[in-house]
Design brief:
heterodimer; A: three-stranded antiparallel β-sheet; 18 helices; B: alpha/beta; two-stranded parallel sheet
């Protein structure tokens, strides 16, 4: 029974029996636990949430419209701003779709390099997600541990491409620069330090009573719901859907590696957290194998294939390279793409990240539709939060890993 | 230049054309994508057959495309909406496409089959103005409610038409 402090209203309610009314609460965008520009309108009965309406749309920058005006190589800088927590994975996804459309077979070395940067960004994304979830529930130290480790991964990005945050590393048919020894040394450092940090985070969190009580049994997503609501990635795997594109629809060099797909059946916040922690261990395993078996040979497909952008040395020192560079850079020139459309997806840290690409024969896509995992998972939020308390908003939001730039693209 | 090849025989395509006859307009494969263009009157039946009887239980993606001015496109509707379905047991995918035309683009909503279609249909509505009949909550999702155009249509310029500068201003007294 809600209490009304206004005396007049009390008088008015005398004799009318029980009167039900609900409060409305704006949660975000300035709330620290909504992290970015998320806004939730909550309808409350006391502290119990009756209905939640998520609002998105403070960042809308027309990324998909830009995709209709930038060439396949140029758009990579926009693609990696979508999920800015794991940019290389977005680049891999974008050029995976483009290469499928243009029917380009990558060199073995390039496939391994892309696997390595993809898995590094998965670790980076999961570290942020688990660390921020812990921070929102009051565990500050775990967050510092996670962020400290992410710095090492940014060091790798910086060494391989020159940019710390948005590497823009992939190109059609290859990568910007080949890996050198220093990059491999830095990867080695991450491989050595990460297991210890993950153990420390587990020690801090998994015996922390407050953390467990706020995560267990909260925001349960059943297997049927997960399939019906199009969930993918760790969120679906925590509910017992074991689908993983790396295993079930292998792309790049994933068939070469031995790894497991962790899953849980509880479907609550704690299960999602644990699946992410375990996925980082598996990603490290993949990187370890990829670095050990990294094939030699060129990282890019030869320029005789017409589509790849030649590196600077080839462009400045050979006639073919110069012509190829000119053809690709000048507007209204360049090779033809098929007048057709293709859907290609990769397993990003948050789930299936797909591109539906329509090409009109030029080097610019007619339509670049992104299948954004965060967008689809944010739509699940009102189903999960129903009948929970306000405090659980933070736990559920943290376990879903919503990235605002990917929401409204 | 198109590498598209028409599908002559594929088990699921055969089943579809057997059941739905002329409603299955065209089927093709490109790379590893299997695509079927269906008539919009049979859309819900085709999708519910695929979901309930053929095992394609997962709606992995839903989106639209505007083909206004697409080179050498003489037939077909202005917009097309695609539904990428996934059969998780066998990792098979099928893309169902449906054409929808001006001046009043309307499609049946697939919310009755997949709850996940909720926001994706709202996004297609917001970006292209395609209405989904039967959707319980068809509102704009990315653009503000005051916005009157559909930004991803091909006749909408990249830099906009200045709508954002002309939004009504609300003073503190009015709020």
């Amino acid at each position: 029974m809600p209490v009304n402090l206004l005396e007049d209203d009390l008088d008015a309610n005398v004799g009318t029996g029980e009167q039900e009314y609900h409060w409305t609460l704006n949660f975000g965008p300035q709330h620290p636990a909504t992290h970015t520009t998320l806004r939730l309108v909550l309808e409350l009965d006391g502290e119990r949430i009756v209905k939640a309406t998520p609002h998105i749309g403070y960042l809308h920058s027309g990324f998909e419209k830009l995709g209709e005006h930038l060439t396949f190589n140029q758009y990579v800088t926009v693609a990696d701003r979508k999920n800015y927590i794991s940019p290389p994975m977005n680049e891999v996804a974008w050029h995976h779709a483009v290469e499928k459309l243009l029917d380009i077979e990558l060199t073995p070395r390039c496939k391994y390099i892309r696997v390595i940067i993809g898995e590094l960004s998965r670790i980076s994304d999961h570290l942020l997600c688990t660390g921020a979830a812990a921070l929102d529930l009051g565990a500050f130290t775990a967050f510092l541990f996670a962020f400290n480790l992410r710095e090492l991964i940014y060091d790798i990005y910086e060494q391989m491409s020159g940019y710390r945050f948005h590497p823009g590393y992939t190109r059609v048919g290859g990568v910007l620069y080949d890996f050198d020894d220093k990059v491999l040394q830095r990867i080695e450092r991450v491989l050595q330090q990460t297991p210890k940090v993950l153990k420390d985070m587990e020690k801090l969190l998994f015996r922390n009573r407050i953390f467990l009580e706020r995560m267990r049994g909260v925001g349960v997503l059943t297997k049927e719901m997960a399939i019906n609501l199009s969930c993918s990635g760790p969120i679906a795997r925590a509910s017992g859907v074991t689908y993983d594109l790396r295993k079930d629809e292998p792309y790049l060099a994933y068939p070469d590696f031995k790894f497991q797909v962790p899953y849980a059946t509880e479907g609550d916040c704690y299960a999602r957290f644990q699946v992410r922690m375990e996925e980082m261990v598996q990603s490290l395993e993949i990187i370890r194998q990829a670095v050990k078996n990294l094939p030699s040979g060129p990282a890019n497909v030869p320029i005789s294939e017409k589509f790849p952008l030649p590196d600077k040395g080839t462009a400045y020192n050979s006639m073919e390279g110069l012509i190829q560079h000119f053809e690709l850079i000048m507007p209204n020139r360049g090779p033809d793409s098929p007048r057709d459309e293709v859907y290609a997806a990769v397993e990003s840290p948050n789930g299936e990240l797909g591109y539906y690409l329509v090409a009109d024969g030029s080097q610019v896509a007619w339509r670049t539709r992104t299948r954004p995992p965060s967008f689809i998972h944010f739509a699940v939020f009102p189903h999960l939060i129903k009948d929970h308390l306000i405090a659980d908003v933070v736990a559920i939001l943290g376990s879903l890993s919503i990235i605002a730039a990917e929401l409204d693209r | 230049m198109s590498a598209e090849t028409p599908v002559t025989s594929h088990p699921i395509v055969d089943q579809l054309s057997e059941r739905f006859g002329a409603s299955v307009i065209r089927s093709s494969t490109f790379r590893d994508n299997l695509r079927v263009l269906v008539d919009h009157s049979a859309l819900i039946e085709v999708l519910s057959f695929l979901k309930n009887d053929a095992g394609y239980t997962f709606l992995s993606e839903l989106g639209g495309t505007d083909y206004l001015g697409y080179p050498d496109r003489k037939e077909g509707a202005r917009f097309e909406v695609h539904y990428v379905l996934l059969k998780q047991e066998t990792s098979e995918r099928i893309i169902i496409k449906v054409g929808v035309d001006d001046p009043d683009p309307t499609l049946p909503s697939v919310m009755s089959l997949w709850g996940g279609a909720d926001w994706m249909e709202r996004e297609v509505f917001d970006m292209y103005g395609i209405r989904f009949e039967g959707h319980p909550d068809l509102r704009r999702i990315l653009m503000p409610d005051e916005f009157t155009s559909y930004p991803l249509r091909k006749d909408y310029p990249l830099r906009g038409r200045g709508e954002r500068h002309n939004f009504p201003k609300i003073t503190r007294e009015q709020s």
